[in-house]
C-alpha cells in the first residue's frame, strides 16, 4: 500500500463545519472522532501530516462584521474559535495515541506553542501531527489562505481540502442535479470561473508556488487515505 502513496508530506484543511456533524453549532464528538480516524489511517501509512482547522462551527468574522462589529475584532474572535477546534482535534487524536502539537499564529503560551516554522518542521520530521491554529494570525484572511500558506512554508507535496462534496463541480451539486465534477482543473479555471471551492487568495498563493490542491469529501470514512492514493472521487487543482 505504501508504494502507491504519492505524497510524503501533506497539509489537510478541515473546515470548522466538519467538526459539528449534524449539530447547528460547536462540536460533535462522533464527527471529530471520525476525522481523527481518517487522519490516523494516513498517519499509519507513514505520511507526515499537518492540519489547518477553520472556525466556522463557532464564529466567523464576517458574521460579526455584518452585525455591526469592527471587522478586525470580529476576525480576532474567529481566529480564537480555530484555536478551540485545534484543541478539540488534538484531544481526539491523542486518544488514538497520535502525538500532536498545536502551534498558534497568535501566541497563547499557556495553552499551546507559538507558530515557529522551523519548530513545526522538526515536529513533522519526528512524525507528530502538527495542528496550525489561529489561521494566518491576521484579520481579513481565511483559514483557506492559512492552509495554502502553511502548506508552502512546510514544503508539503499537496494541500488536501476535505469538504462536504467530493470535488469541484461546474455548479452547486446540492442545487443542480446535472452538475458535473471535474477530475482535474487548473488554478486559472477556478479563478476565472469563480468556483467557490477556496477563496481566491488561497488559490493564487497555491498557483504561484505550484502547490497541488486535492478536493475530496470527508463524509466518506477513509476518503482521506483514498485521496492520498488518487483513488475514489476527488478533483485535483494544478497547472
Ligand atoms: N480568520 C482570520 N484570519 C485568518 C484565518 C481566519 O481573521 O488568517 C478568522 C475569520 O474571521 C474567519 C474565522 O477566523 O471567519 C474562521 O475561519 P474560517 O471562516 O476560514 O473557517 P472555516 O470556514 O474553514 O470553518
Automatic annotation (TrEMBL):
Q: Which family does it belong to?
A: Belongs to the UMP kinase family.
Q: Identify the enzyme class.
A: transferase
Record's catalysed reaction(s) = UMP + ATP = UDP + ADP
Q: How does its activity get regulated?
A: Inhibited by UTP.
State how it assembles. Homohexamer.
Q: State the InterPro entries in the record.
A: AceGlu_kinase-like_sf, Asp/Glu/Uridylate_kinase, Uridylate_kinase, Uridylate_kinase_bac
- Per the record, the coiled-coil ranges are none
Residues binding UMP, per UniProt: 55, 75, 136-143
Which pathway does it take part in?
Pyrimidine metabolism; CTP biosynthesis via de novo pathway; UDP from UMP (UMPK route): step 1/1
**Matching NCBIfam families, A to Z?**
pyrH_bact
Main function: Catalyzes the reversible phosphorylation of UMP to UDP.
Q: Which CDD domains match?
A: AAK_UMPK-PyrH-Ec
Q: Mind listing the UniProt keywords for this protein, alphabetically?
A: ATP-binding, Cytoplasm, Kinase, Nucleotide-binding, Pyrimidine biosynthesis, Transferase
State the Gene Ontology BP annotations.
Answer: 'de novo' CTP biosynthetic process; UDP biosynthetic process
Residue stretches making up the Aspartate/glutamate/uridylate kinase domain: 8-217
EC number, as in UniProt? 2.7.4.22
Task: Please list the GO terms describing molecular function.
Answer: ATP binding; UMP kinase activity
Record localization: Cytoplasm
Which of this chain's residues are annotated to bind ATP?
Answer: 13-16, 56, 60, 163-164, 169, 172
Spans through the membrane: none
Q: Mind telling me what this protein is named? A: Uridylate kinase
Q: Which GO terms describe its cellular component?
A: cytosol
